[in-house]
Specification:
heterodimer; A: 310 residues; 15 helices; 2 strands; 1% strand; B: 291 residues; mainly alpha; 74% helix; 3% strand
């Protein structure tokens, strides 16, 4: 209850906000920030709980975006179907990558995920149906009834997706999955020896992560009215997801939300006021500083300074 | 498409030259990741940084290869500092060093890349030398001199490092750290100092690799992303830490990439390294010449 009532209130608040007279640009920027919240939350399921670093965020995000594009172009599918299809593809990709590399040490998984990004990008560059290297222009349908613009509608969709992904992450954290993942993060051998099905748990985490990341990518083509490989499979999504989780704190589902909200908002502000290069630089510097100085992230700092907050 | 042995021969020939070049750009990583177990994903970024340093030094009229050699001591020191920092911040703290170490090197790679973009812009840079732009005519085949230069330097580098690691005292110490660090500690040696030295050498070699990178083709700040795949593919395929394996793996990648380039075209070439990497990880993660 302590979790579900605020969640429903936030869902209603996002809906109400989209119907209010707030400036259109707010929704345009907020959508990107919320996307990073979903990505960081998803990243943390495998990266934070299990300690397996995934550099392949753009691969999962991109397969989601392209799955949605194909469903839209081929069947004229509605947004909900696009998101479901994207999540399915992302989960499958997570399963495939996981089964190949999760038996190995973590660094091999990390490198393999980088490989998946570039393989996906190359495939899409060479696939004429989705526009190849030049990309594909997409004609947005009319927004649904109560919304006056498509961006507002996408904002609500993404806000609800944030809530859904946080609910999933919270469930994973508190259930036997999360306990098993934490056990194998501390010592894979010890966990295996005490009967934790380590490979199966890692695969479950990888599939959930992939599905959530792909779902976050699904509305992107509609948001931009355009899709193109180079920006879809951009490593800036990697650093956004990883940075959000690490800066916020990886031990609790709240961490990635805090980190991604801060980082995402900062990025939006810096992109507008300075430049998009500097924005990536700031994320890189913050990431390195946090990893060195405050390895427990913002949550860790709060816990240190306020000893009574659990 | 008509298949011809002439074309295939040309592709293999070019692949061998390309492969030696790939071996040369990977050999630093073969030491830092293969032998020392440092998750050095910033290796390609440091190499591209080396290319830009070469570009600056060469603009004073120095030959690019010589410029790379001149830069090596500076990069050696840089490498020692990076390892020292990595050790103090992560390795010494133990348990969760892996996740944070990876994130650290990834962040470092991004900082280097964006730093280069902010200083030099996103334009491609090239260097000038007599052997760049002309090629050697061998019967009906033409071999660009720049590839031959890279080929030669690659062979010298591989042979040099192999000899260094097997014949010298420090070289053997580096191999000993890779094999059994606790044992070395028990013998009274300090593994951190040895690793620091080895990481310095690996980074110093990257300066020369960077010089070759800008000789072989134009360089841009984001080039490191592509080389994450190539270098890690070579090192993993070689079997971590094997120097001669690195040369063999480089050749395999070079020939494979060159054949794909000829058969399917340039848009498929970047996927070769990454595909081969995934294949090796899935089928034979200990590599061809694995310990």
């Amino acid at each position: 209850m302590k979790f579900w009532i605020p969640t429903l209130l936030l869902a209603a608040a996002a809906f109400g906000l989209a119907l209010s007279g707030v400036n259109e640009y707010f929704f345009y920027a907020a959508y990107m920030v919320l996307t990073f919240v979903v990505l960081a939350t998803a990243w943390n399921i495998l990266g934070g709980y299990a300690g397996y670093v995934n550099f392949g965020t753009p691969a999962f995000f991109g397969i989601g975006a392209y799955a949605a594009t194909v469903l839209f172009k081929w069947l004229d599918a509605p947004l909900a179907v696009q998101i479901a299809g994207a999540a399915l593809m992302g989960g499958l990709l997570g399963f495939g990558v996981g089964i190949m590399t999760l038996r190995l040490r973590g660094i091999f998984f990390a490198i393999a995920t980088v490989a998946v990004i570039f393989i996906m990008e190359t495939l899409m560059i060479n696939w004429r149906y989705v526009g190849g290297a030049t990309g594909l222009q997409l004609l947005r349908p009319e927004p649904m009834a109560p919304f006056e613009s498509y961006t507002r509608m996408l904002f609500v969709v993404m806000a609800w997706m944030v809530l859904a992904s946080v609910a999933v992450a919270r469930y994973v954290q508190d259930s036997w999955i999360g306990r098993g993942l934490r056990a194998l993060r501390d010592s894979e051998e010890a966990a295996e020896a005490s009967g934790v099905p380590t490979l199966r748990l890692k695969l479950v985490a990888c599939v959930i992560m992939g599905a959530l990341m792909a779902a976050a990518g699904a509305p992107m083509p509609m948001y931009l009215s355009f899709i193109e490989p180079a920006s879809t499979f951009n490593l800036s999504y990697t650093i956004g997801a990883l940075g959000g989780a690490i800066i916020g704190g990886m031990s609790h589902w709240l961490g990635p939300i805090v980190g991604a909200l801060l980082l995402g908002s900062l990025q939006q502000i810096v992109t507008v006021t300075i430049s998009s290069e500097v924005n990536v630089l700031i994320v890189g510097v913050l990431l390195v500083v946090f990893v060195v100085v405050a390895p427990e992230g913002i949550l860790g700092l709060v816990r240190k300074w306020l000893p009574f907050s659990r | 498409m008509i298949f011809s042995f002439d074309l295939l021969f040309e592709a293999v020939l070019f692949g061998i030259l390309l492969g030696c070049f790939y071996a040369a750009v990977s050999i630093g990583l073969s030491v830092s990741f293969g032998l020392l177990d440092v998750p050095h994903v910033a290796h390609p970024a440091l190499m591209v940084f080396g290319s830009y340093c070469t570009y600056i030094v060469a603009s004073y009229g120095l030959d690019p290869i010589l410029a790379g050699v001149v830069l090596m001591p500076a990069f050696f020191v840089l490498g020692v500092l990076i390892y020292r920092f990595y050790y103090e911040a992560f390795e010494r703290r133990g348990s969760e060093a892996a996740v944070r170490g990876l994130a650290f090197f990834f962040g470092l790679a991004f900082i280097i890349e964006v730093g280069l973009i902010l200083t030099f812009g996103v334009d491609q840079r090239t260097v000038e030398a007599r052997y760049i732009g002309s090629s050697l005519a061998l019967g009906e085949y033409r071999i660009p001199y720049r590839m031959l230069v890279a080929f030669g330097v690659a062979l010298v580098l591989t042979a040099g490092l192999t000899l260094y690691l097997s014949k010298t005292f420090i070289g053997r110490a580096i191999k000993a750290v890779a094999q059994d660090e606790p044992a070395l500690r028990l013998m009274g040696a300090n593994p951190v100092r040895i690793k620091q030295w080895a990481f310095g050498i690996a980074t110093g070699v990257s300066a020369l690799a960077g010089a070759m990178l800008i000789i072989v083709g134009p360089v841009e700040p984001a080039l490191d992303r592509l080389y994450i795949g190539r270098t890690f593919c070579v090192v993993v395929l070689a079997g971590l830490g094997s120097m001669t394996g690195t040369l063999a793996a480089g050749l395999i990648l070079g020939i494979a990439e060159s054949i794909v380039l000829m058969m399917l075209g340039a848009s498929w070439a970047p996927a070769v390294a990454f595909g081969l990497l995934l294949l090796v990880l899935g089928v034979r993660p200990q590599g061809l010449f694995g310990r």
